[in-house]
Write a structure and sequence with these properties.
The protein has 5 helices and 8 strands; from the N terminus they run E-E-H-H-H-E-E-E-H-E-H-E-E. By secondary structure, it is an alpha+beta fold.
């Protein structure tokens, strides 16, 4: 394993990537990531590059509603993706939903696959989740391929599920249970 030379505290470490929680120190890094990937992420997700949005994001994490996970390449210490564990529900449900987006310059290199595997492991082992969902627009083929690689199962279709970019968008419902999560080397 390559040692990580960083001031960030990893939540989980893989062979090529590690995940860490967003902090106030990451605001410029995150906003730069969003700016350089703005057209790549549309029409799937529309981000705000207002620093106030990032402050709101950190407050949602602090309240336990969301767990943000930044994915970094171990070798270059570059931010290559973001995965959010959203709408965390504990108690008898122990479930959440994922939102995620990667870096166009690193698309197709396996960083998001490994990073999501680390996030799933973290969600089960550290948060205690049993069920994790991903709701994906039907034409977002890259996201569907990603969840299929990690053994998510398609469970259904939700018309007008979420408003994105000012339009109601249909989504496919995908999910994985704790016992079906593939081990990370």
């Amino acid at each position: 394993m390559i040692s990580i030379i960083t001031s960030r505290s990893p939540l989980c470490i893989g062979e090529r990537t590690y995940i860490t929680a967003p902090t106030q120190k990451n605001v410029q890094l995150y906003l730069d990531f969003l700016r350089r990937n703005e057209t790549y992420h549309k029409p799937w997700v529309y981000h705000s590059i207002d620093p106030k949005f990032y402050a709101h994001y950190l407050s949602r994490i602090k309240r336990g509603i969301t767990q943000g996970c930044f994915i970094f390449d171990i070798k270059s210490d570059t931010l290559v993706g973001v995965i959010n564990i959203n709408n965390i529900q504990l108690g008898s449900l122990r479930m959440a939903s994922l939102g995620y987006y990667g870096d166009e310059a690193n698309a197709g290199k396996g960083y998001m696959t490994e990073g999501m595997g680390l996030v799933l492991k973290y969600a089960v082992e550290n948060i205690g989740l049993n069920r994790i969902e991903a709701n994906i627009q039907p034409d977002n083929f890259a996201s569907i391929r990603l969840v299929k690689r990690l053994d998510f199962q398609k469970e259904g279709f939700s018309p007008d599920y979420m408003q994105i970019g000012g339009k109601w968008r249909d989504h496919e419902r995908w999910a994985i249970l704790a016992g079906d999560i593939l081990p990370i080397n």
